[in-house]
Write a structure and sequence with these properties.
Layout lengths: L2 H12 L5 E6 L4 H14 L3 E5 L11 H4 L7 E5 L2 H9 L4 E5 L6 E2 L9 E5 L8 H6 L2 E4 L11 H18 L10 H14 L6
Parallel strand pairs: 1-2, 1-6, 2-3, 4-6, 4-7, 5-7
Helix pairs in contact: 2-6
Length: 199
């Protein structure tokens, strides 16, 4: 690894935000998952969760749409909703799902300065009732058009950039949130598994 590559990866790790994550439920198009991964890397989210109760676990991602984000964002795959939620609760605070309901809060009412997991559901049916029942609440993205829905990767990007705005204003990117040990371990993992990453 060249000194320049080392310095760039170190800078990336010093900006990682381990207090926010994304859960994708029953997403059928792997390109949508890859696009979300790309946004998560851009925001500084180190890991995401993929829950699939309708089919087998994904074996490949949409490489073109991910732009190699699969190298930099860890993916945890689950087939059991309770196990997935338990794993998330062990590391994050609140869990909010995207769902258009009477009890839903607006995107800009969410406090992204606190630990949080955001759930985005199936392209056609949204988040399942089962998972909504396991979450702490729902939120919606304000929309003024006739079609009251966005592509999942767009919805995720809009949401995460609001998180970026709030976290930037709160100084969350001004100092490392990962421990020195975690940074060293991730640097070693990247150097071993991807000796020639495109960075």
């Amino acid at each position: 690894m060249t000194p320049e590559r080392h310095d760039k990866l170190l800078t990336v790790l010093q900006k990682r935000q381990p207090d926010i994550t994304v859960l994708l439920e029953n997403i059928t198009d792997p390109h949508n998952i890859s696009a979300v991964m790309r946004t998560c890397d851009a925001i500084g989210i180190p890991e995401i969760y993929v829950l699939n109760t309708l089919a087998d676990a994904h074996k490949r991602w949409g490489f073109r749409s991910s732009s190699s984000a699969w190298k930099w964002v860890k993916v945890h795959q689950f087939s059991d909703p309770e196990a997935c939620v338990a794993a998330i609760r062990a590391r994050y605070g609140r869990i909010l799902t995207t769902h258009l309901g009477t009890d839903s809060v607006g995107l800009y009412e969410i406090d992204f300065r606190e630990p949080l997991a955001l759930v985005f559901g199936n392209e056609r049916k949204g988040v399942t009732e089962k998972l909504r029942g396991l979450a702490d609440g729902n939120f919606v993205i304000p929309q003024m058009g006739v079609i009251q829905s966005l592509n999942i990767s767009v919805a995720c990007a809009v949401t995460l950039y609001e998180a970026l705005r709030q976290k930037t204003n709160a100084g969350h990117y001004d100092h490392p949130k990962l421990s020195p040990e975690a940074i060293d371990a991730q640097m070693e993992h990247w150097s071993i598994n991807w000796p020639s990453p495109e960075v």
